[in-house]
Every structure is written in C-alpha cells, then in structure tokens.
Amino acid sequence: MKPCAIVILNYNGEEMLKTFLPSVCMHSIYDVWVIDNASADGSINFLDKNYPQVLQIKLEENFGYAGGYNAGLAEINGQYEYYILLNSDVEVTADWDLDLITWMQAHLDYAALQPKILSWKDKNVFDYAGAGGGFLDAYGYPYCRGRIWETIEKDSGKYDDVSEVDWASGACMVVNASVFHELSGFDSSFFAHMEEIDLCWRMRRSGWKVGYYGSVEVFHLGGATLDRASPKKLYLNIRNSLSMIYKNESSSRFFKIFVVKSLLEHLAAISYLSQGKKEFSKAVLIAYKDFGERKIEMKKFQPIMDGRKEVARKGKVNLIFWNWKVLGKKTFDQL
C-alpha cells in the first residue's frame, strides 16, 4: 500500500487545471489523481496532452463534490493509506504533501488534517474556506481562526502552530483512507458544501481527532464552483447544515438548535427581501422546505467506536453570529 494519493476533483475546470496543476506536479512527491465529474470542456484533452503522469478517474455524470469524491475514491480504495483531497483552484508549496503525511503518520489518533489556507488573490490574508482551522459554535455554525463570519484576518504568523480543531477544510484536506471508507465517506446527498464538516463531525463522534498544521501553507482561489455570495450556495449551506446537525445531535438537542436557527435564518430571509434580494430570500425558504422533506428518510449517524471515546467539540463559542454582529468580536482572539 502506498502512503498517499493527492486527489483533485474536476468539473469543467480546464482553466483551473492550467493555472494550478503546475504547482501540484512541481511540488508533490505522491501520486496525483484527477477525478473528472463528466466534464464537457477540454479538461481531459488538456490532461492527456500536458500531464500524462496524472492518473485519471472518469465518472459518467456530475455527482457533485461529495458524490464525485465518493465514487472516485471507491475505485482506488485499498491502494493508499491517506488521501489529500485538493480543490482544483489551490496552489501548493514545496514539501507540502510530504510534511502533511509525515505529521499524520506520527499522530495516528488523527483522521483528518488541514494546512494553513491563505488567499491566492492576496497571499497576505487568510482564505475564507478553512483559514487557520475550523470550529463549530453550539448551534452548528462554522467559523475559523483567521476568519470570523465575513471578517478575514491578515496572516501575522500567530496561526503557524499545530492545533486540534472541529473540522478541516475540503479545499485541502488530508484524510485517513480507511476511516474515510469506514464512515462511508461524504454524505452524497449534500452534493456540495458542508460535507467536509459533516465528515469531520462523524470522525470525532467515532473517536478520531481532526487537526490543523500551520507550518504548511497553500493558496486557495475560492469560488471556482459557486460564488460565495450566490443564492445556490446559501441554499446548500442552510439545507446541508440542518441535515448535518440532525444526523449528529440528539433529537432533543436538534429541536433546540432548530428553533434558534429557524428564527435567525427566517429573519435573514426577511432582510434579504427588504434589500430586494428575492433570490436569496427564496433560497432560505426552499432550503427549509427541502430539509423537511429529506428529514423523513434521514437516519441518525451511528458512531463506529472500536474502543475509542467521542472527541468533544473544540469550539467554545455559544453563537458566533451574536459575537460577531452584536458584540463586535471580529477576530478569533477576541472570542
């Protein structure tokens, strides 16, 4: 069995591959794979012509981020100890993959790890997706060191550390391959967004730790699939967040969370409407409607413990939005 496969999911991403794949091939020592979600552009021809060393898995339809990775990784199951799941719009740095895998091999109680993720457009600031390691507040809202809600910090070196976190970013995420498959990978019903947070939650419930390793830096463009300020992404985030919380919390705890989230998010829908952003308001309402329909078939997650104990949530914030919007706590060290 080989130590690691670097696996990039692609969908009509020829331009992203042209821009970012050179750094991956230049700086990586492990096998590089591209899982293609039935692209209709020139992605495959580009790879065949310019990167014959990159291994390919061609899917017959677009299964999204979650389903695409599940289907592709199933084809190489048993060949690698670890996967590094890497977005197609990420630039990497020297020794990045070796350093991440060396750390994981020395810390066998960890099932997932992310590096420091900075913005490709401005390499002095953190990226929105993952930044300096991800946490969850008591109501399941994610936040990061280096990014609280819409406030993004400059990289001053204070997150060049190693830290246990609640979730690792899917933009660049090392996962223990056997744990990934044991937990049935990502929830393919999510299609895209929040699936890595859900997976990390299930890992922690099954007794595995999730880590952040700040000595490795990568640079993420972001928005290559969906713009951060799009109704579709808002819809997916709300629907998938509700699904994630429902699966991983007790019924009584979920009810309490649902009441608070429903109030906040329906108030947000009214606010969007007052601003003339009808599509955003509609996205909120449809997300709740679709979650209600999906919930009938949804099953609670059953942890696979094997003698391990559940790893508690590391985020200590009750409601991150209240801290950011009302109390004015804009950076992680103010929380």
Give me the secondary-structure category: alpha/beta
Name of the CATH first level of the largest domain: Alpha Beta
What separation lies between the terminal Cα atoms?
A: 44 Å
| Secondary-structure element order, N to C | EHEHEHEEHEEEEEEEHHEHHHH
Low-confidence stretches: none
Q: CATH homologous superfamily of the largest domain, by name?
A: Spore Coat Polysaccharide Biosynthesis Protein SpsA, Chain A
Radius of gyration: 19 Å
Number of helices: 10
Strand elements, count: 13
What's the CATH architecture name of the largest domain?
Answer: Alpha-Beta Complex
From the spread of the alpha carbons, the general shape counts as: globular
Helix percentage range: 25-40%
Pfam family, one: Glycos_transf_2
Domain Glycosyltransferase 2-like: 6-114
InterPro entries: Glyco_trans_2-like, Nucleotide-diphossugar_trans
GO molecular function, one term: glycosyltransferase activity
